[in-house]
Write a structure and sequence with these properties.
single chain, about 140 residues, alpha+beta, Alpha-Beta Plaits, six-stranded mixed beta sheet, 3 helices, 6 strands, globular
Length: about 140
Amino acid sequence: MQALSDQIQASLCGTATPPLIEDLQTTGFMNIDPTPPSIDVYPGDPSQDALTFGTQNNEFSFVVRARVTTADHEAGQKLLLSMMDPGSTTSVARAIKSDKTLGSKVSALSVAGPSGFGIFNDRNGEGSYLGCTWTVRVMP
């Protein structure tokens, strides 16, 4: 999960000045208390599927979730749309696919999505974030 998060961070914020997405927070785990814009990576449901008999040949599924603030809902929607656009320089799918081996940590990966817009409540239940998700399947 961390390798996937690191790859997204490097692709969207790496060497560009200014970064493609200002102040992007990425985490290789489910981020309960994000500071938007935020991308987190966590196990999908189901998190594993057997490719063949035995436990050594499982395919792993991860959710990549992007969230933006709703304080300036128009700016947040524009940013989220650019992250969803496969032709955009800020495309999350493009960032994921930039190295399909995650630095030689896996043999291959595939990306499905993005989902449509969704509302994600904050930890306290007092506010919300606008977001979407991608599903990344990883082959060891």
